[in-house]
Amino acid sequence: MSVFKAVFKSIKSTFGNLILYFAIFTFFGNLSAKTIATTNETMFKESKVSVAIINNDESALSNGLVDYLKETQKVVNPRTDSLEDINENTRFGIYNYAVIIPEDFSEKLSNGDAENALEYISAGASTSEYLLTQKIDDYLKDVVIYLECGYSEQEAIDLTNKQMIKLEETKALVQSSTEEDHFSFFSGMYTFNAYSLMMILCTCISSALLFMKNPDVKNRISVSGMSFQKRNTAIITSVLLLGIILTLLCIVAVHILGFNYSSDKSIYYIINTFALMLIGIGMAYLITSITSSENIIAMLSNMLTLSMCFLCGVFVSTDLMSASVLKAAQFLPLYWYVSAVHYINDTPLGQIWGTTFATKISIEILFALIFFALGMIISRKKEQYAV
Amino acid sequence: MFVRIFLYKIKELTRMRSIVGWNFLFPLVLATAFYVGFGNLIKEDPDTFKTIDVGYVNTNSQDSPFSELLEELSKETDEHIQVLNVQSFKDEKSASKAMDDKKISGFYLENGDKINTVIKENGLASTTLNQIVRAYENAKFQLEEITTNHPEKIEQAIKLQSKDLNLMKEHSFGNNTSRYLQYFFALIAMSSLFSSWISTSMLNGICANISEGGKRFECAPANKLVAVAAGTLAGMLIQSVSNAIVVIYIQYVLNINIGIPLGETILITTIGSGIGIAAGTLIGSLLPNPKYHVVVPLLFSMTCSFFSGLMWDQIKQLIQYKCPIINKINPAALITDSLFIRATYGRTDTYIQNIIIMLSMIVGCLFISSICLRRRKYVSL
C-alpha cells in the first residue's frame, strides 16, 4: 500500500500541467467540436455564409441590400474598420465574407454607372465566396435593371426583395442521407482527446515512473520487507489505476459538455479511449526508459504527441492530407485511434461491433505492447551496460 | 572579462543536452511534421472553388433555355473558374445511381416548366446548385414583371440580363498569405520563446541559493552586471542561431516560401528570442526554487504558442475578434502577427507597433528582474 500511495503522491508536481491540458481540452476541444459538428438532414437546408457588412452609404438602396443579406445569410458584426483586420477575419474563418458599401453606392446605381459599385473581401476563390458573390450580384443586377427600365428607387428595392423572398421557396430535394454525411460532437471531442489524453498520460505517468526510478526511493523500497512481486504488482496496479482515473476524467468531461447531444455510440468511443490509454501508458513507459531527465521527458512527450497529432488527423482533417502521408501515418498509433473514431461516427449503431472495429482496437493495443516491449528492452540494456 | 564569460556561457549552454534537444531539435521535428501533414495545403488551398459535377435529366422533347445556361456555366470564366461539369442522363434512375456512386454531387430534373434540383446532402455545393435554379427563375420573374408594367423596356431588360455588369470587385491586398503558413509562424514564435529556459538555466549558475556554482559566482570579485549581461547575450545568440536554423530549414529545405526577406525574419525572431530570455530571467528571479525552472518556462512557452495558433490556426484571430488586447500581451501572438503582417502587407503601423511592444516587454521584464536580483543577501546557504 505504501508503494501504491507513493505513486499517487509523486504526481503532485504535475498538477499544473494536468490542469492546463485539461483546460485546453474542455475549452478548446469543446469549441472545436461544436464548430465542426454537423447533423444528419433529410430536408434541404441552405448553407448560410457568415458575412460582415460595412455600410458607408446608409441610403435606401444600401439598406435594402443589408436587409436582404440579413434575411438570407448570417450577418455578423465586423468589429473593426481596418480592412487588414477584416481580411484576416475572413482568411481565418471568423466570417467568410465582408461587404464594403462605399459612400457613393446609391449615387452610382441611380446614375447607371454601376460598374464596381460594391467591394468585397473574401478568403480567396472559395465556394462560399462564389456563392455569395453570385447572390449579391443577382440582387444588384435586378435593382439596376429595374432602375434602367423606369422603376423608381423604392419600387426597384421592393420588387427585388419580393422576388428574392419568393425564390426562397425554390428548394432542392434531398434524396438520401447516410451516417457518413455528418460528423457528431462526440467524434470531434474524442478526436481532440487524442492530444489531451496523450499529453496528460505522458506527463503524469512519466512523473510517477520517474519517481520510482529515483535511486533513493528505489533503494528504500528494496531494503524494505516487501517482496519483489508485491512491489512490482503495486507499481503496475497504481500506474494502471492512475491511467484509468485520468481517462475517466476526460470521458466524463466529454459527456458533461455534450449532455444535450445524443450519445448512443458512447460505449464504442469509451472502448477506443481506453485503448488510447494503453498507448499513452506505453509511451510514457518507453520515454522514461530512455531518459531520467524531467526536461527531456517533457520534450520527447511534446515532440512525439504533437507530431503524431499533426500527421494522424487530430488537428488537421485527414481529408486534407495526401494519400502518401496517410499511408505513412498508418505506422503511428494515433492514426488508428482517429480512424476508429471516424469509423464509429460513420457506421450505424448496430453495425459498429465487428471485425473492422476489433481490428482497429487490436492494432492500438499492439502499439501499446510494442511501446512496453521497447521500454523493457531499453531498460534491460541500460542496466546491463550500466548506462 | 565580458568576452570570457560570454564564451564560457556559450560552451556551458551548448553542452546541455536538454537545451540542444528543446531549442534546436524540437522545432525542426515539428516543422517536418507540419510539412508532411499539411505542407501541400500551403500551395494548394483546400478551400479553393472546385468544379461541381452535376447531372442533367431533361424529360422534355426539346432543349430548353436552362440547358443553355448549364452549357454557359460549364465554360471556364476569365477568372479560370469552371462552375459546373454537366453530365446528361436519360432518366432519373440512372442519375440517382451516379449520385449514389459519388460521380455527381446532384442533378437537375427538368420536367415541363419545372426544374428540380436533387441532391444527396446539404452543403455549399448543394446550395450553389440550388442557387443556379433560383437565378434562372428570378430572371424569368423579372421579365414577366417588366412585360406587365413596362412592356416598352423589355428589350433593354433582356439585353441587360445577358450582359455582365461587373457590379462587384474584390479588394486586393497584394500578397495572399496562406492560413496554413500561420502554423509555421507560430512554430517560429514557440522556438523563440524556448529561450526562456536558457535564461533559467543561466540563473541556476549565478544564484547562490540555487547551486554550488552560484555560491562561487556570487563570492567571486567579478562585476555581476557584466557577468549577467554576458550570459544573457550568450543565451540570445544561441537562440537566434537556433531560430535562424529553423527559418532556413523551413524556407530552403522544406521549400516553403515565408514571404519575408530572410534578414528581416531573423531580426523579428531575434527580438522574439529577447522576449524569451527576458521572460525566463523574470521567471527565474521570481521563483527561486529550481524545480520550477523547467516546468514554468515550458508552460509559459506552450500556452503562449497555443494561443498564437500552434495547434489551432483560428485561435489567434478568434481572440483578435473577441478580445484583441490578449494578443497584444501574448509574446508568441506578437511574433506570429508580426511575421504574418510583414508577409502579407509589408511594414504597416501595426507591424511597427508589435515590434515596439516586444521591445518594451524585453525592457520591462529585465527591469523587474534586475530589481529582484540586485543586492541579494542570504541569511543561510
Helix-strand pattern of chain B, N to C?
HHEHEHEEHHEHHHHHHHHHH
Largest sheet of chain B: 4 strands, mixed
* Rg for CA atoms of chain A: 29 Å
- The percentage helix of chain B is 55-70%
* Multimeric state: heterodimer
Structural classification of chain A: mainly alpha
User: What do the pLDDT scores of chain A average to?
Assistant: 87
Sum up the overall morphology of chain A in one term. Answer: elongated
Question: Radius of gyration of chain B over alpha carbons?
Answer: 31 Å
**Contiguous uncertain segments of 5+ residues of chain B:** none
* Percent helix of chain A: 55-70%
Number of strands of chain A: 5
Sum up the structure in keywords:
heterodimer; A: 387 residues; mainly alpha; D-Maltodextrin-Binding Protein, domain 2; 2 domains; four-stranded mixed sheet; 5% strand; elongated; B: 381 residues; alpha/beta; 16 helices
Detailed description of the structure:
The complex is a heterodimer of chains A (387) and B (381). Chain A contains 15 helices and five strands. Chain A is mainly alpha-helical and 387 residues long. Chain A folds into two domains: 2-39 and 179-384, no CATH class; 50-167, 3-Layer(aba) Sandwich (D-Maltodextrin-Binding Protein, domain 2), CATH 3.40.190. The longest helix of chain A is centred in the middle third of the chain and has 30 residues, at 228-257. Chain A is elongated, with a radius of gyration of 29 Å. Chain B is α/β, with parallel strands linked by helices and 381 residues long. In chain B, β1, α3 and β2 form a beta-alpha-beta unit. The two termini of chain B are 27 Å apart. In chain B, α1 packs across α10 and α8 (196-204) runs antiparallel to α12 (292-307). At the A-B interface, α2, α4, β4, α6 and α7 of A face α2, α4, β4, α5 and α6 of B.
